[in-house]
Input
Amino acid sequence: MKKYVSILFVLIMGITISLSAGCGNKDKNTEKQYVFSACDVLSDENRAFDYNSVNRCNICVWEDSFFYLTTEKDENSKSTYVNRYDVETGQATELFEIDKSDVSPGTSINGLKAISEDDIKIIIGNILQTYSMKGELKSSVKIEASIENAAQICIDKVGNIFTTVFDDNSRKLCIYKFDSTGKKIAENSVNFYPTKMVLDNKGRLIIRYEEGETTVTSGIQYFDAATLEAIEKEAEFDAIDIFGGDTSNTFYMSDGINLITYSDETSKKEEILGWTETGIIGMGVEYLAPFGKDRFLCMFYNGDSIGEPEYAMFGIIDEKQTNTVEKKVITVVCGDTASSLEKKIIDFNRQNENIQVEYKSYYNTDMNFEQSLYMDLFAGETPDIIILDGVDIKRFISNGFLLNLDSYIEKDDTVNKDYFLDGILDALKTDGKNYFLCNSVSIDALVGKRSELNKFAEGWTAHDMISYYKSKDKDVELFFNNSKQKMAYILIGEDLNHYIDWANGTCSFDGAEFKELLEFCNSFKNGEEEYDWQYDERIKPIEEGKLLFETATLDSPFSAQVYRTMFGGDEMYLGYPRSEGSAKKLNINLSAGILATSKHPDEAWEFLKQIVMNTTEESGEYDTSIPVSVKDFDIYTQALKDNFKGKTFNYNFINVGAPTDEDIKVIKENIKEAQYDTLCYEKYNIIREDIMSYFSGEHSLEDTVAIIQDKMMKYVNENK
Output
């Protein structure tokens, strides 16, 4: 495999220049571009958005305006208001307060539709209300079936209501249609889970659905809007969201990267715009509707926390002539989409006139990330930056795909050696060089009592752990909810390199040492670790000396408080036992490198810095990852001190409060000692099922080690 990849890379290096000549720069003189312009929709400073009010069911377009809901900022108030925004004038107007006298307190509003100048439909709980534009309540009728817990609701141009809801009587997921008086006029049942529902211009109801348990697939099901009879189905339809269409297209769809128009008559998909290029976080788009020619109304969540009300943004997408500026285009490729990455791209593009960052996701491709990237490179596409989360980084490095970043780190005024917390850059090195960086980290380790474990402070092996365990009484447990699977990963999965001689291309998985570890792991109970536990169940055995260790994840100063409480201030963190010295594991988030084929490495470095930076300012309060920079770490920990001063909250059944200097010191010290190994998960997954087969009795010990030895030899030969 490696030989093939290396040859492919040589070919790529030789042909990309000829195949992609002229690519990498965009002349904005010759093309139009969609631009997002935010709408100032809060006319009253006392009004705010509520997540239950800002969703696709409660936004609608009518003529040159759109309608939406707001609530009072006062947490004690339950008042909700209908608002109108005139796109032509840019004026937001509060129309009227919704009458909630006929419903129970706290009942959600889950439908809004302007039918005419004097007919606005509101669905609140199980009640259909009709108002005039002036706020006159014209009628209030009860809908014939219970729809309070409806998954999806939409209202057509004449006031008919369509909803998907679980029917308690039939125990089926049903689609209901009601007329404007609330009378049920059609129904059907389905055997899938509907995630989105829209109406098209052809008299059809379109539902995006998901089905499956272990492997979830999505598709499109069409229904006759008059009868709710199922018409046709498109299985494995690659769209994370769908939106209502216009006169020329069936509907619009989003893959998280692009807005796409789709015609079922031709099965043709056409990309309309790229979300990030337009200034929109694609994964946060909640509502979109055509608003005249080459114009859309869009509402999305602008931030890392998708669904947080304060991030809701309304705006109009218009096709406009761009400025006459030639930009260098930097392409970012990733295996999945991430709202944090999208926001960084948008912010960077706004701040830079001469560089434009675009990105491509391989999430919905038939091949894995690496294969998809290889094929694109071979085809002459030359991306600049690769997001490495979930990727075998060291394989990319060994095959020459990543650029050595040391020269950039040495000369940069901001992101240099002094920028990072102690230990970060060293942990990320491969053969003494930095080929990638990351945005934030966490640490995995084992934690026990210092009074007993201090002798292992310089490192320990699996044999040391087993001997320590066997020295205790028989009723003493190594970990909470021990299992064969858990022990195998701790003692074998984290130490696989010990059984591989990369220099000579040999393995020793059929040796006595590996067999003894398998037998030891097999002495524990079967089954995966259970996480449902109460405080006393976990703390009391530690206090009594009946539980030796916890698997610890240090992802904030709060986690240090948890383990200090659990072990009564006598806690000590150890790495996973390894034959060549134990190591605490460094987990990395939003990691990225520059591809060696990049035509604009200097510009790519500028955006790579954006990925690494600006962690704390975005998160604000509590987060489950630790910023990598000294500055951001100090801001982050001080914010936690300030925000949680005098407060407590429950974390894993243990009350924690504002972090102390000791908590912060624990995090910094463990980061300094942690190591990063991208290969441990990959290698263990190769043999995991075979180990499980031995535990279940399907294979003997001898057969198991023979199978594992054969598999790992093949792995070594392909990757050495």
